Amino acid sequence: MDGNDVDTGGKCPVMHGGLTESGTSVTSWWPKSLNLDILSQHDFKTNPMGPDFDYREELKSLDVEALKDDLRALMKDSQEWWPADWGSYVGMFARVAWHAAGSYRLADGRGGAGTGNQRFAPLNSWPDNVNTDKGRRLLWPIKKKYGNKISWADLMILSGTIAYEVAGLKTFGFAFGREDIWHPEKDVYWGAEKEWLAPSDGRYGDVADPATMENPLAAVQMGLIYVNPEGVNGQPDPQKTAEQVRETFKRMAMDDEETAALTAGGHTIGKCHGNGLAENLSPDPEDAGPEYQGIGWMNTKGRGIGRDTMVSGIEGAWTSNPTQWDMGWFDMLFGHEWELKKSPAGAWQWMPVDIRPEDMPADVEDPSIKCMPIMTDADMAMKVDPIYNAICQKFMADPEYFADTFARAWFKLTHRDLGPKARYIGPDVPAEDLIWQDPIPAGATGYDVAAVRAKIAAAGLTDAEMISTAWDSARTFRGSDMRGGANGARIRLAPQKDWEGNEPDRLARVLSALEPIAAETGASIADVIVLAGNLGVERAAKSAGVELELPFAPGRGDATDEMTDAGSFDPLEPLADGFRNWLKQDYAVSAEELMLDRAQLMGLTAPEMVVLFGGMRAMGTNHGGTKHGVFTDREGALTNDVFVNLVDMGYTWVPVSGGLYEIRDRKTREVKWTATRMDLVFGSNSILRAYAEVYAQDDNAGKFVADFAKAWTKVMNADRFDLK
């Protein structure tokens, strides 16, 4: 080689300048920079269906009964390349659906089955999701047949529901309406671990105290859906496992009875697979070579199918009839004494001390061969823990009650992140309103909107009071699980009326003025709150010299205390609101990261986040009336002054005590304004500054107001599923 040669290791010396692997990004040199990509994920560029595709319209032409018939047939159509256990795929598809839905967590509403995210990393390659890839391949002919009329997200959950129906369960219902995403989610924090199945200790303050698990996490280890089936950190101890199960399912919105029902019912069909060695498996789907075509975990040194399948490492079925819905799990668990054994793969599992051959499950390929049943540590927890044991005794005394409880819990598990019932589609939607669906009665639409506006205008409230109240009512919306928002006016109910972020005294004062208006006019309180906020924004725009009329659609309803599962609303409480420049307390996470997280949950784009920040500051809506970040001499007017002054090099930005900053005139050193981190990040972050500069331009004052109006309306209508 001469001095210009490059050693290519024998490969063709073709260089490329594209950053084509995910291991390194253009911003990896600055790992603490804001990940603004989470505000632009799943945009039209990633969606092959195009901007005019409407899945809900496509669903109208779906032949639901034909689809269900095809799924029923699939349950018994064993394929040679991946044969069904006992000739039935009911266990396979129950698991596909369960593991799609089971990643949901209540704390931030992220995870779950609502987007078809099991098709992409990291979930497609989680250790706990081994061989769900085979289930999706088995479903492909049906997806291919029905095409755009059925999303992957809906199909996976429906397959699990049909599996239970085929097994003999009277299911509670099913709703379509989940729309697919087309690339991995970038916003979900699954934990800080750098390796799969790292010990639980890293995500607990004290692993012996499950309540100390890091929020918003719910699973006990990286790569698991719930708990380790072998025990805490792989060490069997059913009582300790029971405590982790209780906390984990609580974080997934389940109570003790639902948890016990799901454990028993989930293990009534199917089996664990551990008749092999994990080291003989090919890489996970995301890491496998092109010859695997997205299939992972294939056995490289043996059959790896049928009785030789390897999944969790635990080997065996829970019941005598693993393809039938019955009380077999209870009969097995409570009818035998159990002892610890190792599976062929070396995993801890519980096996009966003594059992009659006729009570043993058959081999998955040869019915003449009897196999030992098993229980996981989580199963044993249901027997050892006194609370779970009592619930199981209740189920055993009333099998019909157990079946109904499981059917309802399964419906909740698989529909929790679909959102309110207004989003449900299909002939099998249950008529019953369930408390966890956050029911809201229909609101009036025929009242005189102009008369309501006139009464609001005469109520003596300030623009900032009205804007802040409407904002606080709407900002709870989470696009992750479609909860929260202004509809229902739950801001006037416990627990929201007492949240510090809602300024209870100011809120009570505003509601005392608005509630009589609702009563007098027939409008809902929810509508009146939004109308008041709109009126405040319009008056602020007029103060800036711009005539503005915000769109308004009546029809919001008012929820009652009886319709509100107060405890499940606690996770919706804002701990920070960058738009109103408020932190409940100092956190390890920076203020700007908390603001970004809130913006993503609200479904905002980066430009929308920026324009809302500037407008809210200019209108003087800060929590408690603080002046931090109000970079204008015209407070109360909807101007672009905040951006004009933020990017003006005539000022310097000086840190002072308490995490605050002073904005000083460069020449006179006079303090002009004060600021927080949440204010200054819009000038310091290169991407946010680029947007701020757009709105600071002399020719964009009108664009600023117009864009603010669109973003404001988007927030106010985020939960108006009836309008979409």
Structure explained in plain terms:
This protein is mainly alpha-helical and 724 residues long. Among the domains are: 200-396, Orthogonal Bundle (Peroxidase, domain 2), CATH 1.10.420.10; 449-572, Peroxidase, domain 1; 576-709, Peroxidase, domain 2 (Orthogonal Bundle), CATH 1.10.420.10. 35% of the residues lie in helices and 5% in strands. It has helices at residues 55-59, 64-74, 90-101, 132-146, 152-167, 238-250, 256-266, 328-334, 377-384, 386-397, 399-415, 449-457, 463-474, 504-521, 525-543, 566-569, 591-601, 606-618, 641-646, 677-684, 686-696, 701-716, and strands at residues 271-272, 316-317, 338-342, 348-352, 576-577, 582-583, 651-655, 661-665, 671-675. It has a three-stranded antiparallel beta sheet. Strand 3 (338-342) and strand 4 form a beta hairpin. The chain is globular. The termini are far apart. Residues 1-9 have low confidence and may be disordered. One of its GO terms (biological process) is cellular response to hydrogen peroxide. Homodimer or homotetramer. The record marks 95 as: Transition state stabilizer. One of its GO terms (cellular component) is cytosol. Residues 150-426 form the Plant heme peroxidase family profile domain.
